[in-house]
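Hi all, long-time lurker, first post. I run a small reading group and we've been trying to get comfortable going from sequence to structure in the token notation. Rather than ask abstract questions, I figured I'd post a concrete chain and ask someone more experienced to write out its structure so we can walk through it together at our next meeting. Sequence below, copied exactly:
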Amino acid sequence: MSKIYEKMYEVTYRDTNIRGECNFSSYMDFMSDAAFSQDISLGASISDFKESDYAWVIFNYDIKVHSKANYKEKLKVVTYVKAFRKFYALRSFKIYNEKEELILSGETLAFYIDIKKGKPCSIPSSYYDRYEVKDDRSIKINKLKMKRPSRIDISKNFDIRYSDIDINIHVGNSHYVMWIIDSMPLEIVKNYRVSELLVAYEKQLKYNNEIVVESQIEYKDDYIIAIHQIVDENKNEISLLESKWEKIV
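-- Answer (accepted) --
Happy to help. Here is the structure in token form:
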């Protein structure tokens, strides 16, 4: 078993929506911070991330929300690297409340790249040692198979702001989800909550880009399935997402 890392978070005012519930994007921020914090705990530093010629790039998110968390609740994020394979890394996450009830479960698939060449490269053996990850071939590492909208029901444009940019000088992963939620009709956002999310990142975005969120919405009995694509001003595909929204009762 690889090294497990735990970190506590509080759902603050800025993390909540109009119902006082934790935003989906905040869950993602907690997950990202926990992974980054584990790196720091194992000997990495901020300067390592900024000055290195190599970096980790998230390719997929697969997240399920099992129960809601509210304002001022304390949450425990538990994460570990499930597997390394060639240049891919599969990381597992679970978020619990103070009663040890499962709030969220998810996985991320990332790949290790040579920044100068702009290409994936093999994960160094030092990472296997640092995280105590064995080369277990029984663990499957698969990219998500994503759909594209077959029609466009809603479309919304966004300008990328300076505040959207993270420490890696590109748009933070949770901001894609903010755009998706902000693009949805108010009736959906008020009466449904996101319970599942799949994300496939295709290209990185930087400051001053413009993007368009295009979505297909399918209404079911008590939930909604939305298929989204994000394209830039030149219609290049940036990301594909699929969200499930459960009706609030």
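A couple of things your group might point at:
The CA atoms of residues 139 and 162 lie 39 Å apart.
The chain is about 20% helix and 40% strand.
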